[in-house]
Design goal:
4 strands, single chain, 8% strand, 4-stranded mixed sheet, Four Helix Bundle (Hemerythrin (Met), subunit A), alpha+beta
Length: 236
Amino acid sequence: MREAVVTATVSILYTYRKMCASSTAAGQLILPESLKLLPLYALSLTKHALLRAGTDVRADERSALIAMACRMPVTSSVAFVYPRLFALTTLEDDVGGADASGAPTLPQTLPLSLEKLESDGAFLLDDAVSLYLWLGRGLTQEWLDAVLQVRSMEGVDCSRLRLYPVDNPLSSRVNRLVNAVRSQRPHLLQSVRVLVAKDPLEARFLSMLTDDRAQASMSYVEFLCHIHRQIQSKFN
């Protein structure tokens, strides 16, 4: 199935290149506006717990994810394939409010790469099923106290931490963001799982950073080069 996803991606972009963009230089990888995210989503799908190689995903969990994916609406499946990553230490005051269309105001998402996880930052990852709150080891005591009501993560069991609203601006912004994300998934309750470096859940969290290279799988840049070579070979 992983190979089928890559083959379909190559076929789609080859057909576009041949039929719609034949006047461009032969050595270019042409991605039309409507398909510019296709390689990114294809790579992320092959790295998803649905399809990725290895034994870290149990058979019953994989089966449940497949069943979930088959009935998931498009509005959820985009984040399911390519999760949204938000930085929490730079949230604006209007986060979680409604824009002119009534949609919640959300901060800009970050690329799914380990280099974006600053050691003194806090980040929320939304995969349309759960919410992961990743805390850097250098996160300030003030932030921890304001949002999680703990003064340090040393010796704290992250599985017992819960994100409750506290009467201060930091907590209000974080909780408004969480509630805004949840409002886009009214069919389920997304629990917030708090984790730090070396936490048992961190491996699952890091596996969703699909822009990076992981074990036998390619990084996003490597995948683009691979797709380009496959398209070129079809012309040759």
